[in-house]
Amino acid sequence: MNAVVAVKPLHYVIHTKQAKLHHHHQTVCCCSSSRNNEKIDGLYSGLSHFELEDHKNMEILESSSIAKENQNDIWELFRETQRNILYLNKRRLMALEEMKKTQQEKQSLLDRVQQLEVELASIQNSSPIAASDKATAWPQLLLRIDSMVLTRIITTEESSNIRGLIINNKAKVASTFSDIQLKGDAELLEELRDFSIKCKQTGFHIIHICTELAPVASVGSLALYVTGISSELQENGNLVEVILPKYASLDLDGVQGLRDTKAEFYSYFDGSWHGNKIWTGVVHGIGVTFIEPVHHVSYFNREMIYGYSDDFERFSYFSRASLDYILISGKKPAILHIHNWETAIVGPLFWDGFVNQGLGDARILFTCHDLKNQRLEHPDKLALCGLDPYRLNRHDRLQDNNKKHLVNILKGGIVYSNKVVIMSPTHSEGRTDSSLSHGLESTLDIHKEKLLLAPYGFDCKIWDPSKDTSLPSNYSADDIKGKAVCKAALRQRVELSSHPSTVVVGCICSDFSDIDLERLKDVIQLISQRGAQFILMGSSNIPSINSALESFRRSLEDEDVRIISTYDEALSHLILAGADIILCPSFHDPLLQMPLKAIKYGAAPVALRSSHKSSPVSWNTGMSEYIMTSFGNASLSEALDQIAENPSQWNEKIKDGMTKDFSWGAECYDIHLNAYTSIKNL
């Protein structure tokens, strides 16, 4: 603090000096008067004339000296007053500057509060699903935590810990918390504490032993599945590794940092130990180990991944080598995740030997993408990788249910796993059908307690109309205006007449051989009669099919029909965005996943030919239930009727579908995480 300086007003100082001068003048006058009284009869009785003159001069000098002294005092007071005024002005300016700074900080805080209030109002006016969007869920939670601290529901220390977990686990927040604004503090705090416990738990160490991985070695749905679920698991705190054969056809562009480690290990096969080289790389953030046989070089030095007479020898060698590598490298995985018949032999290999060699804490999860592809072999071939044919060729183990003289490799994966995940098509109807069990119904029934059904997901980073860079205008369920822009752009691209009210029906095929041309003719005729427009895009590697399709195209002669015989990835995005209805050759194609993409882009999926086959297990996934209830049971004619007769209800159904989460991180992730958790507790 600066000392307070008392400053006298200027008029007060001047008045005081004038008073002193007046007092001095009065004293001099009194002396003169007394001397005048001494004059008698014209004579001075006092001082002489010279004395008087001297006295007068002295008075003048004295008066002059006093006046000068007073003048100096006045100037000194002026200077002192000026210094005081300057000091006060300086203090006043400093105070004004502090006040200005405080006002700016206050305004900044008010602006921030107003911004948060606008965001909260927007969230409160949106649907519960929109409120849990990744862009808004975690800011909402942070604001609620602030409120809990201010009302002393939680301590500052606990709130700081929870804030850190939310910020570091944003990906989990949207899928964990919903209806945030509708929940009370006590309910939300309980969920936050549960979330905190789960986030602090150590994730699983999972090793996939598989034959495909997108995009480096991709043939079918397995490649997309392994990449998709592995990425989600790793992003949510689990350690995921993949072991893959080093194919000659490996797509090296999809591998980051592929290198020969110069490390070798030996694995048992066909009665002896064989050397293997190890390569490593990273695919979509997942560490991948590639095994290259040194002696059996020809096993994976081929053009195709599958389709050879010695496929059992090739993949049983790889399965045994993968287990030998895990053991020798000292890895201690919690989960060994195996897939289809190609690596199903890992199950009996593990439980018949490796479980007692340092991998006793591991458990087996088996994923089956196709129950039809089972691989039957002579029992003696089991000895190639070190298994005992006599022990395993039994009805409760690997013996085939129908051909008793053969072993069923896929069946072995089911029998020797702790959990079995069957990847589900979207057309499940909830009853067991032997035609889809392919002779495994008794095995599935015996092991029904370990069976799980999971839906496929798809990459929402690529397939999302709100972020799709290939579209002329982005849109979402909250703001769907951009879909009309995409519809106009699609018509312009394929040279169709532009009528905003006209329904556009699209169809995208990975292979025209999947299309029933006779059925397609009936569909196109229906579309033409209803005044709609139709766009078909796809290709085929079979010349006869291309010729038939070209003849079919020439025979149409319909100005509202376009057939594009070359597959174009960018155009496929635009067809999904611009179409009102997407005809799907199959509702259970896990590779193309057209029903899921159609719903996400605001188009209704309709089966080209309705199918009433059911799943080999007796329950549905949430995703398949929704798709079949909302879209799967409607024919093309019924869909066109709904659009014409009740457009507002139709639009609401379409927008509701767009809010659904069909990514790998949704239902598919939850089912797998629950499976891992349950088998670790066995």
Automatic annotation (TrEMBL):
Name of the top EC class for this enzyme: transferase
Record Pfam families: Glyco_transf_5 (PF08323)
Key word Transferase present: yes
Segments traversing the membrane: none
Protein name: starch synthase
Pathway linked to the protein: Glycan biosynthesis; starch biosynthesis
Gene Ontology biological-process annotations: starch biosynthetic process
Superkingdom classification of source: Eukaryota
Catalysed reactions listed for this entry: [(1->4)-alpha-D-glucosyl](n) + ADP-alpha-D-glucose = [(1->4)-alpha-D-glucosyl](n+1) + ADP + H(+)
EC number: 2.4.1.21
Coiled-coil region list: 96-126
Lineage: Eukaryota, Viridiplantae, Streptophyta, Embryophyta, Tracheophyta
Protein keywords: Coiled coil, Glycosyltransferase, Starch biosynthesis, Transferase
Organism: Papaver atlanticum
Keyword Glycosyltransferase: yes
GO terms assigned for molecular function: alpha-1,4-glucan glucosyltransferase (ADP-glucose donor) activity
Starch synthase catalytic domain mapped to chain residues: 205-444
Annotated PANTHER family: PTHR46083, UDP-GLYCOSYLTRANSFERASE SUPERFAMILY PROTEIN
